[in-house]
Design brief:
By secondary structure, the protein is α+β, with helices and mostly antiparallel strands. It has a single domain (4-326), classed as 60s Ribosomal Protein L30, Chain: A, CATH 3.30.1330.40. Helix content is 21%, strand content 33%. The protein has four helices and 18 strands. The chain has helices spanning 95-114, 138-152, 243-264, 287-297, and strands at 4-8, 20-26, 37-40, 52-58, 63-67, 70-75, 78-85, 118-127, 163-169, 174-181, 186-188, 213-216, 221-229, 232-233, 236-237, 276-281, 302-307, 317-326. The chain has a six-stranded mixed sheet with strand order 5-6-7-10-8-9, covered by helices on one side. A six-stranded mixed sheet has the order 11-12-13-18-16-17, covered by helices on one side. A four-stranded mixed sheet has the order 1-4-2-3, with no helix packed on it. The two termini are 14 Å apart. It comes from Hydrogenophaga bisanensis. Residues 54-180 form the Chorismatase FkbO/Hyg5-like N-terminal domain. This is Chorismatase FkbO/Hyg5-like N-terminal domain-containing protein.
């Protein structure tokens, strides 16, 4: 397999577009790009207010296609894809569950067709994540639709599950980007937390389907991908109403996940400053303080802060991270 790098916060326009596997954009919406780009039109803090791009770049041209509404690109044994499905207008109560199930059904069909059955990392974004509270909260609908698709595709909903995040945005379609591969990832859990797929019923009829992190090993590399992480100890939210205390608790959880990953890593230990981070902050006015705290605590690491709704209404911040090492 050719070498794969992750370009963080740069302008991808000066890169050979035939070598870009896929990516993400934040802030201002760009002109059409020829690769699958998950773009979030959300406020971005600080110098990145004019837009932020990041993406995987291969050392050679990649294959590409469209299948069942999924734009995808493939670099040998790796596949990046993006599916975005609009909801009914006005939205049907409970309709997000069916839409999520449909999206993941298409996703798994593509992976099977490509012979790359192992889902590594998923980024899920949806509008009004806490809506429909009088029936079933939309985030809980999402969890139920996702888990049903996993089961229908004969995938486990416990243990061997991908890293993931699920955030709320003000408007837009259900947007799901994913990275999959030919070999399974090694899930990493957090000793400070109950595994998300073991959450008790108070959080909904279906537990979330994700690992706290995964170690992925394409030939010659080892990637650490940390899921969206928040101020949760055990299964309970802590420091309600205090965004800075929640941020510190989130960092303690990330540190614990990295320590656990380092017990399993084959390419040497990961450190917090070498990872790249994306922080989701619920309240716009909290972004400067959260950004300063993260910058100080993470020792110069790449951090971008954006405004988004976290999956629980009492959570004010969520942080995800990623990094890689060469593997001899």
């Amino acid at each position: 397999m050719g070498f794969l790098t992750f370009n963080v916060g740069g302008d991808l326009s000066d890169i050979d577009t035939s070598c870009i596997l896929g990516g993400f954009g934040l802030g201002l919406t760009p002109a059409n790009v020829p690769w699958p780009m998950q773009w979030l039109g959300v406020p971005v803090h600080g110098e990145t207010t004019q837009g932020w791009q990041e993406g995987w770049v291969a050392d050679r041209a990649v294959a590409s296609g469209v299948r069942d509404g999924i734009r995808w690109r493939r670099h040998e044994g790796l596949l990046f894809g993006l599916i975005e499905l609009a909801e009914a207008s006005p939205r049907v109560i409970g309709g997000l569950e069916a839409l999520t199930n449909d999206a993941y059904h298409r996703l798994f069909r593509l992976l099977d067709e490509q012979g790359l059955p192992h889902l590594w990392r998923v980024w899920n974004y949806m509008a009004d994540i806490h809506g429909d509270a009088e029936t079933l909260e939309r985030y809980r609908q999402f969890n139920r639709g996702r888990a049903r698709a996993f089961e229908q595709a004969a995938r486990s909903v416990t243990g061997q599950v991908p890293a993931a995040c699920a955030l709320g945005v003000a408007r837009g379609p259900l947007s799901i980007a994913f990275l999959a591969g030919a070999v399974p990832v090694q899930p990493v859990e957090n000793p400070r937390q109950i595994s998300a797929w073991r959450y008790p019923a108070q959080y909904g009829p279906q537990s979330p389907t994700f690992s706290r992190a995964v170690l992925a090993r394409p030939p010659g590399q080892e990637w650490l991908m940390i899921s969206g992480t928040a101020s949760i100890v055990g299964h309970e939210t802590v420091h309600r109403g205090d965004v800075l205390a929640q941020t510190r608790e989130t960092l303690a959880n990330i540190e614990a996940v990295v320590a656990q990953a380092n017990r399993l890593a084959q390419a040497g230990p990961f450190t917090l400053p070498e990872l790249s981070y994306r922080a989701y902050v619920r309240q716009l006015e909290d972004m400067p303080e959260v950004s300063r705290l993260l910058a100080h605590a993470l020792g110069g690491a790449s951090v971008v802060c954006v405004q988004a709704d976290v999956c629980r209404e009492d959570l004010l911040v969520e942080v995800e991270a990623m990094g890689w090492h060469p593997l001899a």
